[in-house]
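One-letter codes give the sequence; the fold follows as tokens. An example follows:
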Amino acid sequence: MNTITARAPHDASVMLETPFHPRIAAANGLQSWYNWKGYVSAERLDQIEFEYFAIRNATAVFDICPMTKYRIEGPDAEAFLNRLFTRDVRKIRTHRVGYGVWCDDAGQVQDDGTLFHLAPDVWRLCSQERCLDWLHWSALGFDVRITDETAAVAGLAVQGPTSCATLQSMGLPGIETLKPFELRSYPFHDGELMVSRTGFTGDLGYELWTSAALALPLWDALFAAGEQHLIRPIGTAALNIARIEAGFIMAGADFVPAEQCIRHGRSRSPFELGLDWLVDFGKGPFTGRRALLAEREKGSRYRFVRLDVDGNKPANNSFIFGAGQRKVVGTVTSAVWCPTAKSNVALASLDMPHGRPGDELWAEIYYMRELKWTRVMARAKVLEGPVFDPPRRRQTPAPRF
């Protein structure tokens, strides 16, 4: 059960605390917090560099309780989800996880998320945005039950090269044989612990799921087991570096969910986010299919790209110029200097037909040092894939570092 507390005696606003909040608050020496969908969430707990390198060199733990979690069950659950998602969810077998997107009737992305096939006719959808109304509208005519279990299910992302060794030390037999996007359940105290080999860092990693009542025992057991594997809690700032380094998009940063768009044309289709591989026209009807077929025939408005930008000044919120630096052809949605890859990476939405490999592109970067703003035009190269994609991410059995 989440506890609602006033932030200050004079402040009428309230924020929810996750089941792990007592442990995270004790570790958050900076007291750096932000609002994640109404929950108090840590932006950073210590030095961001230490937290980032825990992801890449050890075991990093991130509280994902504020992530939206919907339980979808009933005899029509699979048919409903297949109508909702652009991909064929029938290919996601029981005890497997699939990544996907869902669209409105105009073929514009509402959100992306992970779909957990827990048992026959039982699924869990995890996403960034709150979309219960949309799910209920989409479920008309289907025999399904949709339950918001965001507060009832506690989740931790456990990421990094020593994450498997940490879970082995915690006493989870055979965890090293868990394949990417596979899930497995273990008895834990008087309940159950579900482990999925998933994450948002592009590294070897897992996500742990249990009841909110068992959150603190899970945290304590995990950190006791990970002490020799340099385990460390992290905030969203370090996680954001890792996800950009891995080339992962995020709602609210790299695209605006269609339902939230105010200005016409600001939303994006799966094709315009580089997610065409998630659109399966052969599976039958799904929401947005007609519009996406028309877009495939006519062509898209935008192209989403990963860019390697010259220099070491991140191209945050930069305009992207085309050949000759004469015309703006797009904007940067996320950018960061990637410490492990030693690359200045940007994710950008460009006007078609710009953004093909080999195109001449320039990022207009502004940065301030000692009260002086400097403008730099940095050459940007289109990347074919992420700058960080280690073999351990997919290796099975998972390596023990």
Q: What stands out?
A: The domain at 68-146 is CATH 3.30.70.1400 (Alpha-Beta Plaits).
